Amino acid sequence: MNKISNQSFVISLLGLGLVVVLGSGALLVTSNSQSQANISSPADQTNEEVTGRAALTIDEIDPGDKVQVSVAELLQPGFIVVHQDQNRELGEVLGASSVYSAGVYRDVQVGVSSPLVDSQVIHAVLYSDDGDAVFTVNDTPVTDENGLSIEVLKNVGMLPMDHAY
Amino acid sequence: MKVDIRHKIKLKSLFVLSLLLGTFLFSATLISAHFVDLFQLSAGQQSTIRCAGDRLTTEQKNKNDVLVKCLGTVAAATPAPVVTPSPMAHTPSPTPSSPSTPPTNPSGIFGAVSTDLLGNCPANVHDRFVTTGPDGKQYRTWHPQTVPVDASNPGGEKCTFAHEHGADPSTSSLYAEAVPFGYVAGLLNMDEPHAGFKCFVANQGTKNDEGRTSTIDGLLCFHMGTGGPSRFTQRFHSMVYKIATADGKRMSVQGMADTGSVGSICDSPRAGKTVLSLGCKVDSSYEIWENVLKINNKGKTILNAVSSTAAFDPISVRDPSDHAKLVPISSADAASIFKFNDSRDGYRGCRRESYFGPVHWYNSGSTTTYFTDAYGNVTAGGPLKQEISQGNTTNFIATSDGMAQFKYREEHCGAGLGLKN
């Protein structure tokens, strides 16, 4: 009985030692992953999906004679219009799409009248059609609930800065 | 019976030994895993800390403490840092860096620093002021203009850089971590000139020179240099901007702020960046930029954050006929634009003021965290984390008398500043 008891005691001790060693190891792994926690991977960086409202997404604009629109969502017939920038306000119209019905459109192109050049700044804006299916000065920008136009301000291309002062 | 006693003694010894081993391993692991050791040096000592991982990072916590982290994957166990205190026998040798070096210099720190920015400090002293960016790389960060040559001997020999970065961000109520200078522009493969990073701090209760009291906490680190002509063509500059209002609205955003077009005070309408320009006679040497960062979610503006930054003593002026030409403000060419005849030899772009606000929130969704590209456009996998309170607020109040901006003037004109400050 005594022998069995002692054997159990030894096994318990060895088990306790193992738990302590394994626990320490686990803590070490946890701690190291915590120390890296502020470095997020792109997969973690997700945004809430936007649905059911007018939307416009443009990824990059290369120099040239067109603007590539990744996604446009219109709730009513309208246009995607490209404006020159005038000190952060809408400048002259550089180009407009044909009229689109309400719906979601992907990878569409809008031609511009004069080639876009590196570092030029443009605004891409959603407009509502006034009913004649042709873009004119009577058409108006689509606005959100705050009265702000649905638009994307973009820098064409980007010349790397050469460390000049 | 004797055998039983010996057996019990053996068992007890084994028990004690197991406990000791377990406690030792547990404590050692905790210490190495949590980086909680404090290694204290006495005056006159220096030390070497070797990292057995991939890379060693340092972060100045305050004037006496530096946090050192050994980054990398741990294979089996974390080796304890090798610390070798030795008496100080220190004459650091400068490591000159070329003005045309690429963004990542030999030190592995992002951001080139030319020797003329270093003043009488060795390059390795400047390289002490680094922080880890969200991408895990090392970036330069804020530092005082005058620092100890040996970080382990704060009371010892000092040296002075030929540039300064303005207010210490850690004095802000909103300060959480060191600002990685150049991280935002680096996303566009740009290396914004180091001396241009200027920080501004205003806390609730701060009084300005007009007697107005701030009702907001504000921390702004914006890239604005006045030493060269590239600012006349470079429209977007990096901005790290945090605001907390008295009514609980908060934002912590970063990105390439739009400074608009460039012009002079003689132009109408005024441009986003109003600079001293040849051909426009003035009675004040004031340069001011309005910096706008919009966070835009698929065409919808969810935040419009505006700051303005100004210098009373810009280092150079603009030639409207040649935006690439460097025209020092102290030059004979520039003298023609001033209605007054004071000396401008000492102008170093170090007498500045900032305007915190206005900021408008249009964040009606349930999300308060967004990931964007460098220009503030919400993008899947975007590298920049933006934190924006919920709600719509266009009535931004920054002062106790209801102003929508808090203006704060600061001077950081230490001796030894250079012409690229």
Question: In words, what does this structure look like?
Answer:
The complex is a heterodimer of chains A (165) and B (421). Chain A is α+β, with helices and mostly antiparallel strands. Helix content of chain A is 21%, strand content 36%. The N and C termini of chain A lie far apart (87 Å). Chain B has 421 residues and is mostly beta strands. Chain B is 11% helix and 30% strand. In chain B, strand 14 and strand 15 form a beta hairpin. The longest helix of chain B has 33 residues. Chain B is globular and about 55 Å long. Chain B starts with a helix and ends in a 10-residue tail after the last strand. Chains A and B meet through helix 1, strand 1 and strand 8 of A and helix 1 and strand 18 of B.
Please write out the topology:
The complex is a heterodimer of chains A (165) and B (421).
Chain A: H1 2-35, E1 55-57, E2 64-74, E3 78-86, E4 89-96, E5 103-116, E6 121-128, E7 140-141, E8 151-155
Antiparallel strand pairs in A: 1-2, 2-5, 3-4, 3-6, 6-7, 6-8
Chain B: H1 2-34, E1 45-46, E2 49-50, E3 55-60, E4 66-71, E5 82-83, E6 86-87, E7 109-110, H2 123-126, E8 130-132, E9 138-140, E10 146-148, E11 158-160, H3 183-186, E12 197-202, E13 217-223, E14 236-244, E15 250-258, E16 262-263, E17 273-274, E18 287-297, E19 300-311, E20 316-317, E21 327-328, H4 332-335, E22 351-363, E23 369-372, E24 384-388, E25 391-393, E26 406-411
